[in-house]
Structure formats: C-alpha cells, structure tokens
Amino acid sequence: MKKILVMCGTGIATSTVVANRIKEYLNKQGLGNNVSISHASISEKMSSLDDYDIILSTTVVPAGIKDKVISAVPLLTGVNAEQVYQEIAKRVKEQ
Prior knowledge:
Helix content is 40%, strand content 22%. The protein is of the alpha/beta class and 95 residues long.
C-alpha cells in the first residue's frame, strides 16, 4: 500500500480538498484500495516525510525536499490537473 501525504500551509482546508480529489480520482481508476491518504501542514510533517511514498503540496516547500514533492496546485486550479493525476496514478502503480 502506498502512503500519500498532501500538505498545505495549515493542514486544514486546502489539503483536505486536494486529498479528497485524489481519493476520488484513484477510486475511479480502481486504485483507491492501494493507498492511504493523509493531509497536514508542512511544519507538522517535516520530520516524517520519509514515511510517505508520494508527497503533494499546495504551497512552497523547503529546497531540501523539492525533488520529492509533486505540486498539487493544478488540482485546485484545474490547469494541467490531469497530468498531476496521471503522475500520482503512475507512482501508485510502481512497485
């Protein structure tokens, strides 16, 4: 099972919306049972990022973790959202 973390500035509204959209998309793709999705603020999870397989953020992240993080902004704006969804699905399917 892949562990997905969605982060935003406060870990309340924005990350919840994105997490729900990801869950809905993965369910439609038949991948919903393969993931565990959490949401939080960046400051809450900085020390435990290695616990997650896929990390998405709707806000700026520290330079040291940029390579690990997928921007989730398109899932809010709709611009290039399909590309982000496909990247998430690809990573969920990876062994």
